[in-house]
Amino acid sequence: MLLGLSNVPRDYAWGSTTLIADLEGRSPSGAPEAEVWFGDHPGDPADLADGRTLDAVTGGSLPYLLKILAAADPLSIQVHPTIAQARDGWAREAGLAADDPTRNYRDDNHKPELIVALSERFEALGGLRPVADTLRLLDGLGDGAGVSALRAHLTGEDGLKATIAWLLSGAADAEALEISAALATSSASEFGDTLRAIRAVAERNPGDPGVVVALLMNHIVLRRGEGIFLRAGLLHAYLSGLGVEIMAASDNVLRGGLTPKHIDVPELLSVLDATPGVVPVITPTAEPVTSYPVDVDDFALRRVTLAGEPVRVEVTSPAMILVTSGSVTVSGSDAQRHSVEVGGALFASDESILTVTGTGEAFIAQPG
Predict the structure, then answer these.
(1) pLDDT tens digits for range 215-232
(2) What is the C-alpha separation between 218 and 126, in angstroms, rounded?
(3) Is 255 a catalytic residue?
(4) Is 210 left (phi over 0), alpha (psi -120 to 50) or beta?
């Protein structure tokens, strides 16, 4: 059985006013449009054509949440918990109302996630850069007191997590302001693109110590079709662009900066994995079907590129197919052809093969 899915874009302040509207081929609403959710998470289950929501079909059992994400401004610096951490946090916050703005844990699940770029350029910060590389970046910011203090913390015995705690605790606000000011005249050619991105973050978040935390993170630029996987505990922030995002069915976000939303630095630090390293970019290697391998069981994502010939794809239900360009029809075991608008999706509750026809692009989500 194939069921059409839709949803209303969520109006988070960092959302783009044009990217989702352009994708869907409609006029912009004038408001920020940040995310469209295709899932059964109680925070915003997808709509069915008959007026019900998807959770009425699934009982809330879908292991993944599929989204369209459109960022015009940086998202918060954040991490997501492991399952054990989420269950513990959910139990500790049992006395808080579901909509309490100080709540960190909206459910008891982990939230590893994969994002694939739909725009020609998608920028993100992901993971912590090796300290030796960050010290070279700091060489381009001069030798002011703030930069010198940051360098001393990074080369001390306590390491990256202690440096982040110092920056976000309020103890380093003066140093953070000095470092942000030094960004305006920075000249490290090796990190020119990274410094340009962090300058933009600083302009949108004046005085926020999260700007300096951003300096410690890997700057990642994705081209259309490329993706990154962000495991639990990995510090990250999307900066700009349009993408398809899939994650375990959770809305647990622990924030440390660059946001007016609730920030809980001690809780973020308790979840943070401060091990430095590169976040690998997953590059498409095959057509018409490209896989994006991830090391979790909650979800799997594939991209289908269509050039007129039908493409048969084996799926594990419950699955979804989200159309992101062109003119696409989908059929399942009943052989009925379902036309799917760009920006729309179908839910396949009990299919083993989907036949996708037309021209353009679609993404298929399923359990891992």
Answers:
(1) 999 999 999 999 999 999
(2) 5
(3) yes
(4) alpha
DSSP bridge partners of 126: 236
Q: Give the residue from 332, 344, 316, 349 showing the smallest Cα distance to 58.
A: 349
Distance CA 67, CA 65 (A): 7
Q: Which residue has the tokens 């729309």?
A: 344
227 residue type, one letter: G
Distance CA 139, CA 104 (A): 37
Contact by Cβ (8 Å): 66, 365: yes
How many Cα atoms occupy the beta-carbon half-sphere of 158 within 13 Å?
11
Q: What is the pLDDT of residue 89?
A: 98
pLDDT at residue 285 in the model: 84
Q: State the average pLDDT for the chain.
A: 96
In percent, the amount of the chain with pLDDT more than 90 equals: 94
**Backbone region of residue 17 per phi and psi (left: phi > 0; alpha: psi in -120 to 50; beta: other values):** alpha
Place of tokens 């770029």: 117
Confidence of residue 352 (pLDDT cuts 50, 70, 90): very high
Is the Cβ–Cβ distance between 40 and 249 less than 8 Å? yes
Q: How far apart are CA 296 and CA 367, in angstroms?
A: 9
Residue 157 has pLDDT above 90, yes or no: no
Which of 255, 302, 303, 312 is labelled catalytic?
Answer: 255
pLDDT per residue as tens digits for the range 38-97? 999 999 999 999 999 999 999 999 999 999 999 999 999 999 999 999 999 999 999 999
Angle CA(252)–CA(110)–CA(11) in degrees, nearest 5?
30
